[in-house]
Amino acid sequence: MNKLFTVIDFELKSYTKNKSFVITTLVMVVLLFAASFLPKVFDMSSITGVETKSIFSGSDDKDEDKDSEKEDGFYLYYSENDVLGSKENVNEIFAEVGILKKAKSKEDIIKKVKSQKAKGGFYIKDDMHYEYYVFNAEMYDDTQMIFETILTNLHKQNYLLAHGMDISEFVTEYEAIPEGNVNILGKDASENFWYCYGLVILIFMLIIMYGVMIATSVTNEKSNRSIEVLVTSIDAKYLLFGKVIAGTFAVVIQAGSILAATLIGYGINHDAWNGKLDMILDIPSDVIISFAVFGVGGFLFYAFVYGAVGALVSKTEDINKVAGTVQMVIMIVYFVVLFSLSKPDGMIMKVCSILPVSSYSAMFVRIAMGKVTVPEIIISAVLLYASIIFIGWLAAKIYRMGTLRYGNPIKFRNALKYIKEKE
Amino acid sequence: MKLEVKDIRKSFGDKEILKGISFEVESGKALGLLGRNGAGKTTTIRILMDVFHSNSGEILLDGEAFDRKKVLIGYLPEERGLYPKRKVLEQMIYLARLRGVDKKKATENSMRWLKRLEVDEYAMKDLETLSKGNQQKVQLASTLVADPEIVILDEPFSGLDPVNSQILKDVVNELIEEGKIVIFSSHQMSYVEEFCRDIVIINHGEVILSGNLLDIKKEYGKNQLVVSPVDGDVVKLKNWINDKLSDDVEVTGHNKTDVIVKLMDGVNRMKFFGDLSDKATADGIEIEHFETYKPSLNDIFVERVGEEDKEHEETSEGGEDNE
């Protein structure tokens, strides 16, 4: 057992002493922790919806207006019968889009839009008919829609006035919204959706990234022939288990510290953010625990597979040739789970949450968003960890068999045949 | 300690690689394991190291089944294998610890061996930054770091300059003096002659020659003599012997200074010496040197393996004809 710890210690140092690993981790931790303080440094009220006293928020409003007018441009309008009424009223409604200025005529609008002095213009015949002029139509331009809302409201006002009705009374009654509270006694799928989405992507990335690193580490020992000395010093299964466990520790250290920095930073600045990132970062503890259990399990499962893949080839450039099938399975699981997030209790997700190749990703989604029973969770976890033991055993056999076979990549079928033959 | 390898056989698929290899080696003695490329030396070593399992045969240590967990083996593979991007000391400690040495002792041993091989100044450097010769010395230091009782060296001198070769020679001699079992595999016969009391020559998975090197040399030199001319004209002397003394001897070869001859059946060296003396005087040939032929290991290897390969080819061709 001491030898296993020696291997884990040596292999873990290959990560922790790797400059790119250390720098990436530190940069991510510092950046994400610092990013959580942004609302306290900059005025982010447009995102957070809360006016906070920010270090860089003391500028003069008038100057800002002028700047925004200069930078964003303005819109023109010309109304045949002065349908829009007071300019203040119009600008108040239109403020969302920009500044609205009165033009001299329809031709004046066309001329200024053509010369790009104005961003766009509206020629209004009456409260139900208008024309919109714009130089380049953008893909998502809601200016016209907002302007139409203004005209619709004007039309409603004009109608009510013409029929002698009280506008404010009508609006109050017509747009009355019943007051009610939603009391969710179970899970709110819409609230849990985004962090589940993020965690599915996270575990997918970790398995792909570190899996290849583990395979490369095994293949490197073959290509630099250090395996010749190693297999004569220690049982091959300790070498593989040591590598996989060290890789898992490295993942937990890197991903854990990045996640912790983000969550702690957000926790400190929760009020400044006005809870706007709760949907991603306010992850319930039961989901974090299930993510840890199934995520670590899934990582171990695929890490052993990648370890075996590394033993089947002699050159690092051959890894992708053999790892293709494994990566395909991981990709399929990723897309199936991602597209099934809206139906966490559908048949596909139920099957995925039980199968060891996919339960690492599907089960915590069901725990977070669906109706999963405790026995289902236990069966899935037992199946996953039993599979890890089996895959670990098989990978160790392949590793032992493949380590001293150089040359072309060994086919998986042949590897099993050689194991059966027992060297 | 006495290590015995008895009738080891090994096949990969349908191909039989080892066809009954046997040899033995004792503490304080070195065995030269020789053979052409692909003869089966590395497979034999790997079976010895328990990397492969043999199909049949046995390995005994002092008469009992060889348990690799109880005896430390230091193995220097022909294909050098360490971590290029890790520090020299770090990986030496790692390898020592994998062989059961505690961290403190592993550090001490590592530094001692690095110093002995004169590469201690590189202890904290990445291996890949060292020259090929120094990497080779680090590899040897890693082999010996756990103080093994059995040392297997596969081509230890490749890539070393004469100065480094001398350091390595001294170390190997020390190991033999300390009573270690040393198995030495190399194509550089001069080194094998220098260290090994016994040799085993493997060819096509079979032992074609084994035993005490001095006895083998004596046997190969039996009835053979060397004759050297004063004027150094070896070709002239060779032709003269063929012409005048063909009833006494057969010329088997020559080198830069000597003609090698083999006595015919029924002819002893005194008769040959008398005839040589008389006829040389008559023809004005001056002989400088006359002695028993002592073949080099290289000569023995080339002759024995060459004969074997010829027979092997003939057998293969015969087999093909039959098909």
Task: From the structure above, extract its key features.
heterodimer, A: 423 residues, mainly alpha, D-Maltodextrin-Binding Protein, domain 2, four-stranded mixed β-sheet, 20 helices, 4 strands, 5% strand, elongated, B: 323 residues, alpha/beta, Rossmann fold, Alpha-Beta Plaits, six-stranded mixed β-sheet, 10 helices
Description of the molecule:
The complex is a heterodimer of chains A (423) and B (323). Chain A is mainly alpha-helical. Chain A is built from 20 helices and 4 strands. Chain A has helices at residues 2-16, 19-35, 38-41, 45-48, 61-72, 87-94, 106-114, 143-162, 167-174, 189-223, 226-230, 236-268, 270-273, 278-281, 285-312, 319-339, 347-354, 359-369, 374-402, 412-421, and strands at 74-79, 99-102, 120-126, 129-134. Chain A has a 4-stranded mixed beta sheet with strand order 2-1-3-4, with helices on both faces. In chain A, helix 12 packs antiparallel against helix 15, helix 15 (285-312) runs antiparallel to helix 16 (319-339) and helix 15 packs antiparallel against helix 18. The longest helix of chain A has 35 residues, at 189-223. Chain B has helices at residues 41-48, 88-98, 103-116, 132-144, 162-177, 189-195, 213-221, 234-244, 269-283, 297-322; strands spanning 2-12, 15-26, 30-35, 56-61, 64-65, 73-76, 150-154, 181-185, 198-203, 206-212, 224-229, 249-254, 259-263, 287-292. In chain B, helix 2 crosses helix 3. Mean pLDDT of chain B is 87; it is low at 319-323. Chain B folds into 2 domains: 2-217, 3-Layer(aba) Sandwich (Rossmann fold), CATH 3.40.50; 222-292, 2-Layer Sandwich (Alpha-Beta Plaits), CATH 3.30.70. Chain B is elongated, with a radius of gyration of 24 Å. With 323 residues, chain B is of the alpha/beta class. Chain B contains 10 helices and 14 strands. Classes of the chains: A mainly alpha (423), B alpha/beta (323). The interface between A and B is medium-sized, with 21 and 25 residues.
